[in-house]
Amino acid sequence: MLFKNKNSSNIDDEQIALIEYAQQRIKSKKRLFFHFFFMAFVLLSAVIANLVFDVKKEYIFFELDWSYWLCITWLIVFFIHTFNVFITNRFMGKEWEKKQMKVLVNKQQVKIAEIKAELEKEARIIAESQLYSKKNPKSLVTLIAAASVNNVIGKDNKLIWHLSDDLKHFKELTKGHFVIMGRKTFESMPKALPNRTNVVITRKLDYKAENAIVVNSMEQALKLAENDSQPFIIGGGEIYKLAIEDADRIELTRVHTSIEGDAFFPEINYNVWEEVSSEKRFKDDKNEYDYTFYRYDKKN
After folding, report:
1. 259 contact partners, CB below 8 Å, separation of at least 6
2. For each successive 10 residues of the chain (300 residues), what is the average pLDDT?
3. How do the domains of the chain map onto residue ranges?
4. Contacts of 105 by beta carbon, 8 Å cutoff, 6+ apart
5. How does the average pLDDT of the chain come out, rounded?
6. Which of 297, 255, 292, 293 is nearest to 276 (CA)?
7. Percent of residues, the chain, with pLDDT higher than 70
8. CB atoms within 10 A of CB 97
9. 118-142, pLDDT tens digit by residue?
10. CA gap 295, 166 in Å, rounded
11. DSSP string, the chain
12. Comparing C-alpha atoms, which of 288, 230, 281 is closest to residue 253?
């Protein structure tokens, strides 16, 4: 199995909504400032006109000139406008807080559900491994791979697709175990896989591999891992062919596409292997093809 990192960035919908809300707030404040300057100009003009031209009209209330009544009325309207902008519809007010709290609660519930599902999946894997170990005194030797419908697993010693969930699936299954691989597969990785015992098979007697154990045959590799309840064979194509006769299980991610390549997973003989589980997944922004997680166990 080959490895490659791929990063992507997306703008969250809540961030866009927040930006739009902030823009609306800026517009409402601009309208308030325009209201203030327009009001000041009109009221000042009215007072000046009243004083200069001596345009007066007596009112019943307090005998005030019309210009003063205009000022009082408009100031009340401006105060209401100001109160509405800064108090009633203030930025990040109670309604906004309630909405954000609801969004946060929903996200937490989704995250809790995801964690619960992951824990249940891990517990099931552990339970199945323990059950198998009780029934079988030897290790559960497992081939794990991702292959296209025409059994291609790689080209030029590189990954030919990006399936984020498959990488997570691989990590969950293999962590804490021996991972056995060929030299080319090891060299395709940036470094030895963490939290696992890396074993590299090569014919080169003087080969050195950092943070990995080097052996010269499949027999030596399986002997090293005999105390592991479930050692994993992780590639490449020649290593899979060597190990499939000794394997007890296959964890295969079938990528639903035909593609060119130079490394292949061996054909599965269904007279020897039986499908015990499958889980269909669909492509999305992190997984570029539809795929299915298959588990095959060797028939007794």
Report:
1. 148, 150, 152, 160, 161
2. 44 64 76 80 76 55 60 80 70 65 78 82 65 58 95 88 92 95 93 95 92 94 92 94 93 95 93 94 92 93
3. 13-91, 98-135, 138-298
4. none
5. 81
6. 297
7. 78
8. 10
9. 787 777 666 665 555 444 456 899 9
10. 14
11. ------------HHHHHHHHHHHHHHHHHHHHHHHHHHHHHHHHHHHHHHHHS------TTTT--HHHHHHHHHHHHHHHHHHIIIIIT-TT-HHHHHHHHHHHHHHHHHHHHHHHHHHHHHHHHHHHHHHHHHH-SS---EEEEEEETT-EEEBTTB----BHHHHHHHHHHHTTSEEEEEHHHHHHSSSPPTTSEEEEE-S-TT---TTSEEESSHHHHHHHTTTSSS-EE---HHHHHHHTTT-SEEEEEEESS----SEEPPPP-TTTEEEEEEEEE--BTTBSS-EEEEEEEE--
12. 281
CATH of span 138-298:
3.40.430.10
Cβ-proximal residues to 184 (8 Å cutoff; 6+ apart), any chain? 157, 236
pTM listed for this prediction:
0.56
User: How far apart (Å, rounded) are the C-alpha atoms in residues 94 and 101?
Assistant: 10
C-beta atoms surrounding 234 within 10 Å: 28
pLDDT value of residue 96: 64
Crossing angle of helices 66-83/13-52, nearest 10°?
A: 170
Q: Measure CA of the first residue to CA of the last residue in the chain; give whole Å.
A: 27
Per-residue pLDDT of 133-169, as tens digits, reads 444 456 899 999 999 999 999 988 888 888 999 999 9
